[in-house]
Amino acid sequence: MRLDKFLSDMKYATRSQLKKDIRNGLVSVNNEIIHQSDYPVNENRDVVCYKGVPCVYEKYVYYMLYKPTGVVSATEDKKDKTVVDLLKDTGRNDLFPVGRLDKDTEGLLLLTNDGELAHNLLAPGRHVEKVYECSLKKPFDVSQQEALEQGVDIGEKKRTLPAKVVLLGEKKIALTITEGKFHQVKRMLQAVDNEVVFLKRVRMGGLHLDEELKPGAYRKLTAEEIAMLQSSKEGKVHKKC
Ligand code: URA
Q1: Which ligand 1 atom is at minimum distance from the Cα of 130?
Q2: Which of 32, 123, 128, 137 has the fewest CB within 10 Å, making it most exposed?
Q3: Burial of 57 (C-beta count, 10 Å sphere; 0-12/13-18/19+)
Q4: Which ligand 1 atom sits closest to the C-alpha of 187?
Q5: Is 73 in the pocket of ligand 1 (CB under 6 A)?
Q6: How far is residue 187's CA from residue 192's CA, in Å, rounded to a whole number?
Q7: Which residue among 186, 188, 190 has the greatest number of ligand 1 atoms within 8 angstroms of its CB, and so is best to mutate?
Q8: How many Å lie between the centroid of ligand 1 and the Cα of residue 193?
Q9: How far apart are CA 140 and CA 90, in angstroms?
């Protein structure tokens, strides 16, 4: 692969900037300064340094973020800090969140530059499971559970698809849904005459929020997690619930 493509695939800078930087001697391959943008590199073997920093070739990257409250799920925003701002020290400028969590929702958010994977996880027909821990304003009861499990009217054309409910306390449940409508969980709880006071996503497909992460912290997905997301046709859970 060409040297400028190697660096631009990883979004270190624009292709035109990289061409200038290569010409100006800011890039080395195997400890030798290279001035030709089309210099051939082997991404698996050669050591490429840009501005003195070694670059590992990764076309696609995948990060799990523990989204804190107060941050918006966007790549840029005029007013608020975004989830992408939290991943600034990755050195990448092409990351985007896979789906959205409300500003006041916390928990698992996947960020990547892999559009195909994102599309597969978000496509409505895939019915990827999302699990939310919901703290509620009022005690939760059996009639609310039955309604959520059957599907409720949240003002859309169709009722919501059947959800799964696990009781976690008098005013706390884990709700599993397979859709991703705007404010869906809050609207579902409203539809059964309750109210979400705090919302945290803990799972998406087979990907579980890492319990070691604190709000605002992130880590790369493991090779196993990436393979699982790529192979799970419907995002169904492979291991613990
Ligand atoms: N449902 C909501 O209501 N809010 C979220 O952030 C996610 C799901």
Answers
A1: 8
A2: 32
A3: middle
A4: 3
A5: no
A6: 9
A7: 186
A8: 17
A9: 42
Q: What's the whole-model pTM score?
A: 0.86
**Tokens 């790529």 map to which residue?**
230
C-alpha of residue 105 to centroid of ligand 1, in Å? 7
Contact status, residue 110 vs residue 97, Cβ threshold 8 Å: yes
48 CB within 6 A, ligand 1: no
- Determine the atom of ligand 1 nearest the C-alpha atom of 177: 8
At which residue do the structure tokens 């605002």 appear?
216
Phi-psi region at 203: left, alpha or beta (left = phi > 0; alpha = psi -120 to 50): beta
Question: Mind listing the pLDDT tens digit of every residue in the chain (241 residues)?
Answer: 999 999 988 877 889 999 999 999 999 999 999 999 999 999 889 999 999 999 988 889 999 999 999 999 999 999 999 999 999 888 788 899 999 999 999 999 999 999 999 999 999 889 999 999 999 999 999 999 999 999 999 999 999 999 999 999 999 999 999 999 999 999 999 999 999 999 999 999 999 999 999 999 999 999 999 999 988 644 444 444 4
Tokens describing residue 23: 């010409």
Cα–Cα–Cα angle for 77, 85, 210, rounded to 5 degrees: 125
How many Å apart are CA 241 and CA 239, to the nearest integer? 7
